[in-house]
Structures are given as structure tokens and as C-alpha cells.
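Case study B.
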Amino acid sequence: MDAPAVIDALSPLVSGAAYEAGASVDFATIYVPADRLVETCTALRDTPSLSFNVLLEVTAADYLPRDPRFEVVYHLLSVSRRQRLRLKVRVAETGFVPTVQGVWLSAGWLEREVWDMFGIIFDGHPDLRRLLMPEDWEGHPQRKDYPVQIQKAVQTYEPLEISEAEFKANIVRDRVTRTEPKAEGPEPKA
Amino acid sequence: MAELRTETMTVNMGPQHPSTHGVLRLVLELDGEVVQSASPTIGYLHTGIEKTAEQKKWQQVIPLVERMDYLGAQSNSLAYALSVEKLLGLEMPQRVKDIRVLIAELQRLSSHLIWLGTHSMEIGAVSMLFYAIRERELLLNINELLAGFRFFPSYIRIGGLREDLPRGFHEAVSAFLDRFPGKLDEYEGLLTKNDIFLRRTEGVGVVSQEDALAWGLVGPIARAAGSDYDVRRYFPYTGYEAYEFEVPTATEGDVFARYRVRMREMRESVKICRQAIDRIAPSGAFACNDTRVVPPPKDKVYTEMEALIQHFLIYSQGFTVPAGDAYVPVEGPRGEHGTYVVSDGTNRPWRVKMRAPSFMAIQALPSLVQGGLIADVVAVIGSNDVVMGDCDR
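Model:
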């Protein structure tokens, strides 16, 4: 089932949604407008000729200079019909996507991870908290403008600051004590 | 007589708990010994592999993805390599496909052995772990022979395999395949009719087929609940359509059903391995012949200028992948593994996202343990076969 066939099947079921076939090398990809996402997903799950009963994956990609910036990607599977389908939703940095948790249970954590990593808000999600990152983390690491390595000033404390001469002297002193025979304990037998 | 008052108790389990398979933390609300609710916390093993992968060249991502699901390492790299090869439009020689099938099945055996050992140890059959580790050692030795690395061989590469099979590989694999079915009988003799084991596993952690699919638990968990979805059957990749094997299923959906499914899966894997080893010639093609991706043979590098340049380019700049996205899943040891790769047409990936079966299994965990006993939480975690490296990535 290629993308135009899916769109033909969907169009009468969801009124007023402008779908768009996406380019793909593996299986059908369609672009869905964000405001029609939940109705589209319900139709995809419940229509017998489609019956996409498994949501395998929700993820996103950040195409930074482009506007709208993000694409949220849904991978669907129909076990009974041996079909896969990819949905894409374009989102701007200030925009949001409705949650599909009401359609597929598995969306809960997947959407939480996308929020955690990209900062894309899922409207209506009951529990949009940090998932992989610590709860007090700032920023969304998978964004392209998020640095790969955070440059943080090294914290030093006064007692640790020693001069090179002191450092070398410490090493020498350490060496001497290590090679010195122990005062207590039995004497080595000659 | 004073009125008795009861209240629930909140218990923290993990992240440092021997039976949470790494660093999974569960907050359990208990009414006596009955679990009222469970809320998992993950992320303790988050290492930002997907972010790091965006900084690497395409081929350099292979060792990274192998470290995600560290028990099913080569199933990750196979999923990644297949997705990138899909974007590149590469077709592998038949020998490479057969070797990949063999490696994927040996990896499944290796992962299932760790599952079997730890799962049964956690519910009381401690000696099982030593039996399982004993056989897994042989599989790790095969990895070492193959690539010099026991856990993360990085032997599967984009465009084929790293190098040809070593001498003695066929003998080592055949020796293992001859030995292993007898050992499986031994394991089953210890567990399958063991009364203690049955009481700990039957009727525990039940999930229905509809729920398993709605939670996205495609893999052994859904198969133990009656679904026959197996990527190898439904969407054959790397030549699985030419192999004869059965997809084991059960209908009960409990911990014991998942045990039976995985035990039978091991027998099927042995069957596939036997077919594969018979098809693989001791030497021959180990990569496709696309010069964009695969470096030219050494004798040409030393004698031909173009080959030298190509060799240099592949190792310094890497290769570019046409813009687009692809997702080619494989049937990993814990279910559907797949890498969603996005390319912007350069020599580094734009986005790499691994579909993690353990992530889904932990998400569904509260619904599996609610209403059960606290001791059964351990049995359910073990039978879901979660790997935190896979979950947190």
C-alpha cells in the first residue's frame, strides 16, 4: 500500500484534512496536519482496510534552519495486513502536537521522550515530564542548537591549588617514603 | 476493641537492586504484599548515544549502536546497517546475507541465555545461571574468533562485513551447534516441570494479545500472548525468507508462556544456524562491491592510484549517504529492533534513533504487576527481558 492509496482511503474518513505524500525508500510516508492528527490516527486504527493497531515508535528530527523546524515521526504497523506506515507532522518551535495516547497506549512514554529530547509539546498529554534526563535538567539535548559537550568552567578550590614546584616536591617526598623500609614490623632477614 | 486501620506503604526498589537488570528504579505502592501501583523511573543509563552518533561518520556509528542493547549487540548493528544500506540502495551478496543471519541467530542465543540464567536465578533457581553462562562463554569465544572482541564485535559493517571469516570458524560454530540442543534439554529438565518454578511463573504477569500490541510489545512478549508477529516472517530481511523455521507462540501471556516461547525460539535459532552454516562457503565475498562504501582490496591499493585514493577517502572523509530517511527493523532478541536514520546527504548522520524494545517493556510494566504480589514483580521484570542500556540509550 503506497502513500497515495493510504491518502485515498483516509480522505473520506477525515473531513478537511490536507494530506501530502512524502518521499521514502522503504514504506509509505504521509504528512498529516497537526490539528487532524488524532482523527487521522483513530481512522488508521479502526478502519478495517487500514487497521494499524501498533504504534511502534514516536520520534522527531530537528531540521534547524528550516521552518517549521521539527518533524515528529510516527511509525505504525498493521499486524493483520502486514503493512507499515510512517506519519510525519511538521511542527514549529512554538507549535504543539496533540497527543495520540488515547489511540495507542504506547504513545505515553514515546511522546515524553520526544518532549524531553526536543522540547516539542504534546497537547493533552497527562504526564509530560522528563524521562531520560534528570528532572531538573535545562534544555533539550537532541536539538541541533544544543551543544554536544557543555563547556563548563572547571571548579577549583583553594586548597587544591598548588604550584608546580610544590607538586614536584610532593612526588619526590612520596617516592622517598615508599622506598623507606617500614619502622615497625619484623626486620627483613639477611 | 480498637478499630484496625490499614494504610498502603510506598517502597522504593532500585536503582541498585540485583533483580532490576541494571539501573531501573520502581516506586511501588503496597497494600500488604499486593502491589497497588508501580511507577518506573528510567534514565540512569542514558548516555546520549543518539546525540553522539550525529557527530560521527556513518561507519563510526556501528560501535556506538552496539553498546545500546549490550546483550543483543549485533542485532542493533544489523538494524543500523540495513537502514543505511536501504538509503544507499546497496544489495548484499548471498554469502554476506547468510553470515549475517548466522550472526544474528547466535546473538539471539547468547542474549536468551543471559535472560534464562538471570530470570531463573531471580526466582530461585540459582544454578541455572552457571549453566547458561557456561554455554554463553562458547558464543563469546566465537565472537572473539570472529572479530577479536567478545561483547561488541562491530563485525557487521555498512556494505557488508569487516573482513572474511577466520579459519576455524565453521568448526567452532558446528561444535557449538552439536553441543547446544543437548544442553537445552538439560535446562528444560531443570525448569519446565519444576514445581517451584511453575508456581512462581504460571498465571503471573498476564498480558493479553490486544494489550501487548497496544503497548507496542512486539516480540517474544506478544508471541507469548498469541500473536504470531515476527519481523523475520512478516517483513523478511537479509534473506530470512529462504530459511525454514517456526515462530513459536503461546496463548497464556504469563511469565511461564514467555519462558516457553523463548526456549523454543532457541531451538529454532539452532535450526536456522545449521542451515546458515551449511550455506556459507569457508571463503568468498564478505562485502558488496560498491566502491563508494567498501574500500578496495589491499593488493589494488598498493598498485593502483585510483584505488589508493578511494581507500584514503573512505578512511578519512567517510562516504556520503543520499538525503532521506529509512527504518528497516530486525527481529532482535527482545522484539523489534529498528533504527530510524535520517541523512541530509553528507558523511555524517542527521539523526539516528533506535527503537528500543526494553523501553516499551518497562513502560508496560506497571500494568503487568498491578494486583500481583511484590515477589512477582521480580519474575515479571525478568521475563520481560529488559536491558537498561537498550531502554535508556
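The first strand of chain B starts at residue 9 and ends at 13. The remaining cases will be described in the next quarterly update.
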